[in-house]
Amino acid sequence: MPIRNRLAEMADEIAGWRHTLHETPELMFDLPETTAFVVERLKSFGIEDITTGIGQSGVVATIKGKTDTKGRVIGLRADMDALPMDEASGVPFASQIPGKMHACGHDGHTAMLLGAAKYLAETRNFDGTVVLIFQPAEEGGGGGLEMVKDGLMDRWGVQEVYGMHNMPGVPVGQFAIRSGSLMASVDSFDIVVTGKGGHGAMPHEAIDTNLVAAQIVVSLQSIAARNVDPLKSVVVTITTMMSDTDSYNIIPHTVTLKGTVRTLDNSVRDLVEERVRAIAEATATSFGATAEVLYDRGYPVTVNHEDQTGYAIEAARAVVGDAAVEDNTPPMMPAEDFSYMLEARPGAYMFIGNGDTPMCHHPAYTFSDEIIPLGCSWFAEMVERRMPAA
Ligand SMILES: [Zn+2]
Ligand SMILES: [Zn+2]
Known about the structure:
The protein is α/β, with parallel strands linked by helices. The protein folds into two domains: 5-181 and 301-386, Aminopeptidase; 185-297, Alpha-Beta Plaits (2-Layer Sandwich), CATH 3.30.70.360. The chain is built from ten helices and 16 strands. The strands form four sheets. Strands 1-2-4-3-5-16-6-15 form an eight-stranded mixed sheet, sandwiched between helices. The protein starts with a helix and ends with a helix. The structure holds zinc ion (ZN) (2 copies). The site of one zinc ion has 4 residues, from loops. One zinc ion binds next to loops.
């Protein structure tokens, strides 16, 4: 079945919700107006089972089908947070809050899940329960993890979970996905090299931390070149090299390196951490210095489950036709905290084409309202296909 007529009728109303959200962007976990808007809309659809404050400020609501003969429960997730940047999109409903912008389209994701909720609450043409998951703090706050830690999957008995992100550059009317690794892990680290400060003219009496740090920077590139399988992806980048002096004649006592690591495979992720630590510590030791490594694990690899990816593809094909679904799209190096939900339950993360607009996080990025009925229909298809009416 293509776009549902009912959802096509509702498209303007849903776009209106998005414009309201777009005008009042909020950041991270601090989403009082956004969550109040979500709750108010859900109540207006006749949805009564609404829980707030999950994962600090997430909202979870349920819709029961006409029947519940098998105890099936499907979770659908949208993220709600915006980004700390000024908007330059030129849309008439641009952000009214300086320094905050919905530049990743989470306003659109929230509106599409609300649209699907309204449709599903009206029709209830399924056998089981839909759990609507409105998540805070996707942009670096790990709101997905916070919701999982708060018992999202167990408390609501979620059996499978599906999410969706708009994708600039993919034409409107198309979907894209792949089974397995879709988006990267993102870890960061600090390496604090401590040697022995001294006079720049008397290096033999010092332990030169700049030289040690430089050696570490060079050696870290051997991880990608020599440790990781050449058929697997990895990025190890040193982004900052900072000494505790600013002079021409002092050898600094400490030098700090900062860097980022991206991988598409959790075993590669583990290997990189092990190698960063070993290279930094052993290199420093070989010069008589020390290196303290502070390794911070961010979002894990977003891994789509094979069976659920298949179901997600079938649902997308039902909405836009076989040819408009790319089922083996290349993985991307940005990270996504839906990964935590996919670690907790089988599921899949789908890209919905957002057409010709600057990439997400650009000040002129725009979410295309044309994709709203497509995204809502995909959510509805997921529910009605995974929990067919008895
Ligand atoms: Zn983003
Ligand atoms: Zn995003």
